[in-house]
């Protein structure tokens, strides 16, 4: 008989017709784990730029540097996260779950101080660059194991897709709650600009009474509410999920990190998937980041800003189940073209920023943002499975795949947001000004319309040559199931022979 001192192995998934089935409770607990990160990221995406420019009152060039450095730190943390997590030992909680539990309380603290107004005004740019960089880096250390956990909940593709749908719905809900709660709390800090009539056209006129004396307190209250969800949701995830290892890859040799990184980057389906969503995710980030500024300074929509943000996010949440149903009906690749709805809506908002148009565009934008957020995480496991099938002699490289994807999307987002914010500086944006110049208004229209449109069209063009169709996806699943059954059968024979 086997020695009792044999090393403990991770829990294996059962085989059979019901292998890998997940309960609703497990899916809910898994999905809620990603809500805090999305809530914090959503609040930062919609309001951080406004906070830096009109509350902290740092120059647009410094705000550009803060956003770029923060995203760059987040991108740089991805390879490190992939390396560290791939080398992590299995524990009683698994290999990924301890990272989620460990990062959550620290991330909550860093996020809270991101919205703090330090008393020394000339060091504020450095303060926000440091804390935004820490927030992005720690967010990566949580997001990589959390997103890769999908591969370790079950090996059933339909169940993984279902868990991903639960996750994306909850993350959309987190995005909605984050922006809504933050917006409602700080709403009292921002009032519509009131410019004296005699100097209405003077762009350098201070923004009279637009920021309340208690602005800093309101922003910190909003930050504290969102930060408190991190430890709560990570605890629920730990209690409600069980991390499992694929028995087929359990005994495969470990691949050195840089060799594994080279193999993943040369995998053609992964290349095309990443390249397409680099542009699409950057388009979403740019549109989210400039919506509030556009409504405030380039359109007569200042009084509708909170409602528009809420509409976009509600539409995203409500449309996620529809997109999940639709991708099962027509396939993931075909569903991706729903992202194209963002193109006419972005152009229309920039060309005719009236109230009815803005609300119509908000509804369509929310639906397109939903499918743009759902699809890459639904398609990425298929590319990993395709890699597993082609490189069956190697151990799994899930964390490297996921960290590489997040790395490139964050790097592209850093460049897009950094360059676009810097363009406001060149256009003459004045922090705290009552009325911005015509050049700034034109630049905001370009950033809300032309930039996302071009990025989406390029991304969809690349996605059109993505090789994993619905038929190919089913073939991969069938062949992997056969390999798992064969491997389990060999294990049984070996154990009988050994005994």
Helix-strand string: HHHHHHHHHHHHHHHHHH
Low-pLDDT regions: 1-19, 197-210
How far apart are the termini?
Answer: 5 Å
| Structural class estimated from helices and strands | mainly alpha
Tell the overall outline.
Answer: globular
The major sheet is characterized as:
none
Helix content: over 70%
Number of strands: 0
Radius of gyration: 24 Å
Please tell me the overall pLDDT: 79
Strand content: under 5%
Number of helices, where a helix is a run of at least 4 consecutive DSSP H or I residues: 18
Commentary on this structure:
This protein is an all-alpha fold and 499 residues long. 72% of the residues lie in helices and 0% in strands. It is built from 18 helices and no strands. The chain is globular, with a radius of gyration of 24 Å.
Produce the secondary structure layout.
Blueprint: H1 24-32, H2 35-55, H3 60-86, H4 97-114, H5 124-148, H6 150-153, H7 157-186, H8 215-227, H9 229-240, H10 257-265, H11 268-297, H12 305-330, H13 332-335, H14 342-351, H15 355-390, H16 398-427, H17 438-463, H18 470-498
Tag the structure with descriptive keywords.
499 residues; disordered N terminus; globular; mainly alpha
């Amino acid at each position: 008989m086997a020695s009792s001192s044999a090393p403990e192995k991770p829990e294996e998934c059962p085989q059979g017709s019901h292998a890998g089935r997940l309960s609703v409770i497990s899916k809910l607990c898994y999905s809620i784990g990603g809500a805090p990160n999305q809530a914090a990221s959503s609040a930062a995406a919609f309001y951080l730029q406004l906070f830096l420019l009109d509350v902290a009152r740092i120059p647009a060039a410094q705000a550009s540097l803060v956003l770029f450095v923060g995203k760059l730190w987040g991108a740089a943390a991805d390879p490190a996260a992939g390396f560290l997590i791939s080398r992590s030992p299995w524990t009683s909680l698994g290999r990924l779950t301890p990272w989620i539990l460990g990062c959550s309380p620290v991330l909550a603290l860093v996020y809270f101080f991101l919205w703090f107004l330090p008393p020394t005004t000339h060091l504020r740019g450095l303060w926000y660059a440091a804390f935004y960089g820490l927030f992005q880096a720690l967010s990566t250390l949580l997001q990589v194991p959390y997103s890769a956990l999908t591969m370790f909940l079950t090996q059933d593709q339909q169940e993984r897709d279902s868990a991903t749908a639960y996750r994306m719905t909850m993350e959309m809900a987190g995005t909605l709650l984050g922006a809504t709660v933050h917006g409602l709390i700080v709403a009292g800090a921002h009032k519509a600009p009131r410019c004296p009539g005699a100097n209405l056209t003077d762009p350098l006129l201070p923004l009279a009474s637009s920021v309340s004396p208690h602005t800093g307190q309101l922003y910190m209250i909003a930050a504290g509410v969102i930060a408190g969800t991190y430890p709560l949701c990570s605890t629920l995830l730990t209690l409600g999920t069980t991390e499992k290892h694929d028995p087929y890859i359990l005994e495969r040799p470990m691949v050195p990190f840089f060799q594994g990184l080279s193999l993943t980057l040369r995998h053609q389906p992964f290349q095309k998937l990443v390249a397409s969503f680099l542009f699409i995710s950057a388009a979403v980030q740019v549109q989210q980041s400039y919506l509030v500024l556009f409504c405030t300074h380039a359109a007569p929509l200042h009084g509708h800003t909170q409602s528009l943000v809420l509409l976009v996010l509600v539409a995203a949440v409500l449309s996620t189940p529809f997109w999940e149903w639709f991708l099962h009906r027509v396939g993931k690749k075909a569903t991706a073209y729903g992202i194209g709805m963002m193109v006419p809506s972005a152009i229309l908002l920039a060309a005719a920023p009236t109230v009815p148009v803005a609300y119509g565009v908000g509804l369509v934008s929310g639906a397109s943002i939903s499918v743009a957020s759902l699809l890459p995480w639904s398609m990425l496991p298929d590319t990993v499975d395709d890699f597993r099938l082609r490189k069956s002699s190697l151990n799994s490289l899930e964390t490297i795949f996921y960290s590489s994807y997040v790395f490139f999307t964050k790097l592209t987002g850093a460049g897009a947001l950094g360059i676009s914010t810097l363009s406001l500086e060149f256009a003459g944006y004045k922090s705290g000004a009552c009325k911005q110049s015509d050049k700034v208004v034109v630049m905001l229209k370009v950033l809300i319309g032309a930039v996302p449109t071009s990025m989406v069209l390029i991304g969809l063009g690349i996605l059109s040559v993505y090789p994993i169709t619905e038929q190919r996806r089913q073939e991969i699943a069938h062949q992997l199931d056969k390999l798992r059954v064969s491997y389990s059968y060999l294990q049984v024979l070996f154990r009988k022979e050994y005994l």
